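[Q] Does anyone have a clean structure-token version of this?
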Amino acid sequence: MAEGKKLVIVESPTKMKSIQGYLGDGYEVLSSVGHIRDLASKKEIPDDKKQAYGKYSIDVDNGFDPYYVVNDRKTKTVAELKRALKGADEVLLATDEDREGEAIAWHLLEVLKPKVPVKRMVFHEITKDAIKAAAENTRELDLALVDAQETRRVLDRLYGWDVSPVLWRKVGSGREGSTLSAGRVQSAATRMVVDRERERMAFTSASYWDVEALAVKEASSFTTRLARVDGASLARGTDFDDRGALKKAVLVLDEAGARELAAAIEAAAEASVTGIESKPGTRSPRAPFTTSTLQQEAGRKLSMSAKHAMSVAQRLYEKGYITYMRTDSTALSKQAVEAARAQAVTLYGEKAVPLNPRTYRNNSKNAQEAHEAIRPSGEDFRTPSSVASQLDRDEQRMYDLIWKRTVASQMSDAKYETTTVTLEVDAGGRRAEFTASGTVYTFKGFLEAYEEGHDEKRGDADKAEDQSLPVMAVGDALRLKDVEPKGHATSPKPRYTEASLVKALEEKGIGRPSTFASIIDVILDRGYVSKRGQALVPSWLAFSVVRLLEQHFADLVDYDFTAGLEDDLDAIARGEQQRVAWLRDFYFGSDAQVGLRNIVENLGEIDARELNATKITDAATLRFGKYGPYLEVVDPANPEAEPRRVNIPPELAPDELTAEKAQELIDAPVAGDRVLGENPENGKLVVVKDGRFGPYVQEADPVDPDAVDAATGEVVEAEAPKKRGAKKEATPKPRTASLFKSMSVDTIDLDAALQLLSLPRIVGTDPESGDVITAQNGRYGPYLKKGTDSRTLPTEQQIFDITLEEALAVYAQPKYGARGASSALKEFEADPTSGKPIKIKDGRFGAYVTDGVTNATIPRGETVDDVDFARAVQLLADKRAKGPAPKRATTTRRATTTRKAPAKK
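[A] Here you go.
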């Protein structure tokens, strides 16, 4: 590069082009593509360092000194940065303005070791003015922030590497064999979801009845609900506790009482107005978005996962449409306040804004107030309609949400008046009082622009829908019709959604908002929770993990202790605590805490069988085994006999496995082990079974006719006598075949079973190569095989139907990589970098974007429909920037231990 240029290093390659354009020829802008180095894995530590660093890549006896290595994928990036550094007269570290960005800047400084002045360049929006101002107003590297981030990394390594192995030994593996893990925030988050499910399991529902009627005055009508009978208030859902008992003295109507009362009210058919009460009220707008509230609202209003929401927000930030999206501040700059107020006046009139600008107080004690809230970028906000053509669908929706929230935050209060009317009816000698409410907004204020969503809450069912009431006066007579008794049942607390879990984590002070999306993604990936609609449902695996942690690592999953760790880490960031002293107390212990090392070294015996057991009834215990949950059922008449195992349907949530449901599963007829008939070719019986890996058919030797239940067709196996000391003889494995997805254990017949057992089917011989082509069913679905070359088939039925000519046509098509070619789900124009058309394909491991050269997996949380041309180009660009996957062979890495030094001036 030319002499005299300044080297600017940013995190993301997406930012490079914009920032280069804003700064001009006097600067060269390059990207580190995130972190360039991290703590070493055990195999990356050289032999002479293993004694000190071998366990954690951290020397716990010498100031918790970490051993870092440059990531394999970043060697080319580091080489490129060093090349550019040779001609630079100054380095500007322009990584993100949060703590992680500060740590990345420090790592760059440590690895590059520049001999020219180094400055920290920070900005919270990518606009020309903001970037130029940031380049002219640099600062020194904040080593307190680096200390705090490094402490988090060390803490998480110590926690994860000490506790996770206990889970591996005593619980097993997660969904689809995934490795279990424990972590400072993920374990607390998992416990919160499990605790909510425990509350639901312990909940006892209570039933209550009331009466609704339609009150009519002239041409108007409105819904009323029975509130009191002879002066006694009627029970509502909120009057019962979680055990179904009343919390106060109220009248509980049963069905018979409600129907009797409804009949008397219907006979009376008239009510008089005995009371009218009107109350004025105001509603104030919510603060502009922080990271946490943005994730919550994106979940409620846009149905986005936390991870997807942050991905979309990141794109908007890097394209220059919004300010930095990782922030816990609700503050707006003076220019932003003026822009929001000006836009509100333009759109909604002079009265839309209050006399004085609004300021918001952040309730988070550790908020980084130097940051700004998430808002549209620039000094004049662009309206959603003006940028719609430049954004993809998700970006448009997200920008619209942020724009509305920001503008609304500076608008006037909404004003309303709520009127409550009381009606009285003589119901066969009993005084029945009905009530109805209606709210009228006299001034909508900020509601013209935006209204915050809300999470599901208990008691929502008891709330009357807002309605318009006609003009009435005390003493007016109203006609009653459509009188209807209604039954209700109390409900447990709703399960967490991603939005409500994010809110709960923030309220408890657990973790940082910038990490919530990744934490939720981890507990989903590990199989600790799954989604049912928007709700997060814990698995029985999560119950076992949380039970182990509660019994043996109680402090580490205690909510207050975990929040206290976060407070301490923030104190380190503020320079109020020392990193090494704090880590020493956490790991080795002190007067105030036991210490992680002492906990791990004194675990004692852990009964894995008991840990993975939950008693459901006296005879049935839920156990979590290698292949998932099942019921272990003891025969009361013969308790010494081998217990029976009953599979738990995978869609059954823990709170749905009641004693009654367990008995239903136990009593259900066995669909598996049903004899379908005899294979005419070899005389063996064909049996259908329901196994841990799904339903399948199997050949078996003929059995005594008395051993087959005539009613169900179930094989009743006689117990073979055990010979002490006898050596088992190797027996040939019976032929088996999995059922197709379209088949059912209950309906499969002998002909279909014989077809399955005949697989793989020989389709024919390739006339060119002489290789035999077979059609078969595998783990990832139906496919053709010719030698070592396999090709996916679109449907299971094609296994039996495909001809040799059709198979040869499939093999004549080009194969893309090891995934196998499939028809494109979407096609776009040529990629601007490679010049080749972009397609979205469905591979063995999910949908991916390809230009025939580079393949990029569509991230979890995004669907094929979400990916447009711009997003596809970005995914490919990001994948190219990351470089090829690391080779398995051991390579020499540059490794460093670290001692911080101040940035050069």
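[Q] Thanks! Anything notable?
[A] The CA atoms of residues 187 and 557 lie 6 Å apart.
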